[in-house]
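For the sake of transparency, this paper describes our internal protein records without simplification. The record that follows is passed on verbatim for readers who wish to inspect the format:
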Amino acid sequence: MSMNSNKAVREVLGKGAINELLLKLNYNRKNPTWKLVAYENTNKSGCCLESSLKFRNFSRTWDFLNSVAGVAHKAHHHPTIVTTYNQVSITTTTHDADNQVTMLDILLAEAINHEFDLLKEKQT
């Protein structure tokens, strides 16, 4: 399924469906792992998927960020990314679905996992 190919990927997922998809997304992974986070104590309502990643150094961090930028641009779905020297925090939500999690977010998280795995393979 293309990330942005049809309306179905932008339909809001229920909490049960999200949790089931997160089990598959995180299965047998140490890093990255994703969790469902509700916006609390902010002006936003809704929820997002969130993951934190750690890298060996600044160069590897930017290699990863560049690869995620390419995937996000191609999908027309752009996560919020906060980074420091060797750490990256990524959140994804579907803004045009009232800041809720959709299949588009799950697919982007899968693509981010893939990019992380590719970078990890290059490191060895």
